[in-house]
Every structure is written in C-alpha cells, then in structure tokens.
Amino acid sequence: MRVDGIALPSSKQYTIAWIAPLTCDLAAASAMLDQEHAPPSNFHPNPHDKNSYTWGRMGEHNIVITTLPAGLHGTAAAAVTASRLAASLPHIDTCVLVGGAGAIPKISTVKDENGADSEYIDERRDIRLGDVVVSRPDEATGGVVQYDIGKAKKGRTWQRTGHLNAPPQELLGALRKVQATHCRGRSKMPMLLAEMWERNPHMAAASCASSPSFTHQGVENDKLFKSAYSHADDDRDCEGCCSPAQQVIRPPRDTTDPKVHLGVIASGSTFVRDSFTRSKLAASTGADCHCYETEAAGVMLQFPCLVIRGIHNYADCHKSDRWQPYASATAAACAKEILLHVTPKKWEPTFSWSDIFFLSQAFCNVNEQNKRVHSLRSTSQPPALCFPSFPNRDVDLALKQVGYGIPQDRRTDAWSKVQDEIDRHSTSVFSTVRDGGHAQTTCQTGYDRQAEGHATYRG
User: Fold this and answer.
1) Which end of the chain is more exposed for a tag (fewer CB within 10 A), N or C?
2) Does residue 2 lie in a domain region?
3) pLDDT at 144
C-alpha cells in the first residue's frame, strides 16, 4: 500500500541508489516504488549537489532515485550526477543504473537455394524490443566496456584500453537467484508491470502517436532489418518506406513477456544509429557485447553498479522512440525483481564523538542533579516529582540538532557510546522516547544503577 508524504528521520536509512538517466526511466522507476517518501528530515545535500532526488521504499529497501539533468547525456554527465550523489550520500555503496539501450543483434548469413544471402538471428542471443540486458562480468571484463577509450594503432587498428569494475557481489548474487527463478518459468516481471499499470493507468494509455504508452508496442512493430539495408526515408517510419523482405528472419515467440539477457554492455558517449558502426565498435571492444548505452562508463567511475537496460532499438538507422517507454518499464521491473532478492541492510543510528559530547551535556547535570534524583526516589514522593530536574528542553534541542533519531535502546552501539561518555563524567543517563503526543523520560543514576524512575508528561 502506498502512503505518500512519509519522511524518514535519516538519509542513512536509504541504502540503495537508483540512477534513471531519462524522463521515461525516472517515471518507470518512481512507478515501481511501493511507497513514496518525502525527503528525509535530516537530509542536507552537498553544497555542489544539483541533483534532484526521489525517495521511497521498494520491498524492504529504502531507495533514493536520481536522474541526469534535462538535455544532458553521455558518460561525462552521468559521472557528474553519480559524483554528486556520492558526495551527499557517502554511506550508499549499492547502486543500479536502469534505462534504455540499443541491442547488438547476432546475425548469421546463409545462402538460400538461389544463391542469395539470407540473414538469420542467432537463437542463442535473440534479443527483441522490450527485452532487458543486465551487465554480467566475464573473464575479460567487469560486465561493462567503454568502447570510445583506447589507442589508434598502426594499420588503422584500434585497441581498447582501461577496465571498469564489476558490480557489487550482493547484486550479482541476487541476479543469480533471478536467473534461476526465470529458468523455472516464474519471472515476476509481468506481475510487476501489471501492478505498475494498475496503479498508474495513465502510463498504460498512449496520449498521441508521439507519446507512446509504457506497454508492449505490438509484435508487428518490432522489425530487425538486414545490416546492409538502409532506411529509405528519414521523414517516414519503417512501415511506410521499408521492405518487409529486407527483415532478418526470426522465429516467433509464444509470449510478449520480456526476456532477460545477461552479458557485456558497451558504453560510451556516441549514439550508435548505423548497423556498420554497430558491428565495427562492438568488434573493437574484443568482447561479446549485447547492447550499446551512453551512461554506464561514467557511473562506474563513482559506483560499481549493476547496469540494467531495456532494449528499444537495434542501434541502426531504423531507430525510433516508439519502444522507449516500454523498455524503461521492463528495465525497471527487472531491477525491482533483482532488488527484492537482495538482503536488506539493517540501519542503526550512529553518533560522531562531537555529537556524543553534545548529547552528554544536554542529557546530564553534575552530582547535584544525581543527589536530587536519588533523594526523590528514596522517598514516597510520586515519580513525576523527579521530572522538574530533568533537562528535557536541552534533550529535545540536542536530538533535533544531531538529527540521528532518538537513542531509545541502550543496547544499540550508538547508545552505548553515549552512555560511556556520560559515565566518564559520573553523571546521570537520560533517554527520551517519543510515543504519539507523549514523551517518557527514564533516569538511571550513579547511586543506584539497577533502579529506574519514570516520569511522563504530555507533550
């Protein structure tokens, strides 16, 4: 159930970053949230951070989503966005990059009975529009290769240089679980897409021809043409100017549900929209690349992340934007399914030593306070009478300024540090626990460490 407007007390409760490069990627990511949040109460971004953030919960994970600035793209813009996120939320070490890409088809050429060349898709890598490619390391790469950094060598040859890190192990482990689940025919992606459309009916309806919906666009609109066949008229779509006889032969599928392909992703700042360039660049990487995209190499400089890409074109001159929203949706559904298999990280408030000293001053007065509390607790006076000596205003002020939440359990590491610092000064320990419109104050003095006095006042 979605409850919008909730604000968690600390930005440290968000443990996963999700980078959605384009508008449709951001829309799909936000629609996959189970609960949307207001910004955390204590979030103060780095002064140089110009990112915009969306906060929410997905399964048991609190997730922060960001996007690239409108009109910017490529590895440089992605690197800046990722570095700003890292500066404002340095505790986050798990990241997914989720968006669209252009597939690199694997095509075999066979002579037909008339001696003409016929092109067939390699069924071992039959990637269709709306399918998803997820970066997976192999023996030579970390799952992503940057195709536009290398050496131009003698003989007009090109040697790729550099190496990008592999995704975090926890994400690769979750990916393995998803892969096994799909092998059993139990993909959650169709269900997650259906839930998204139900919660956001506008996303399932195309407003006009230039604004397609986030749903499957029809098998008849998924056309892969032969590598040597160019788009006949840039002002018309393929249906109006391209010959069906020039399509690559592919076997029909029995479902339109998206499939997930694991392999190497080629990343760079160049938009690839030509089949010859598509093949040449892929060959220059020395890797068996599955698709092209334009952000991963930049993000990987800041975050070792898992790259998840929905396919909306074949990186050729027949490219259109019709499939882009649906590809964003399938990539987001795949990312959510993977994250649902990641073990949630337990968050516990932590305090710096300066915070601990500040709290110790607010929580405690010296021995005069101890003597008064001990005296009151030794008589038949009602416990509430010990309340006036408690520095509740100082406590409230301290907690608000620290912004780490309220240490309501002395067993936590944070409270242990506070208690140790207080004990060093032979003072009392005070903890305040908020509950609705009330606050309860517990004292534990140096005279009697086993007994506790309770005072409750209406806040």
Assistant:
1) N
2) no
3) 95
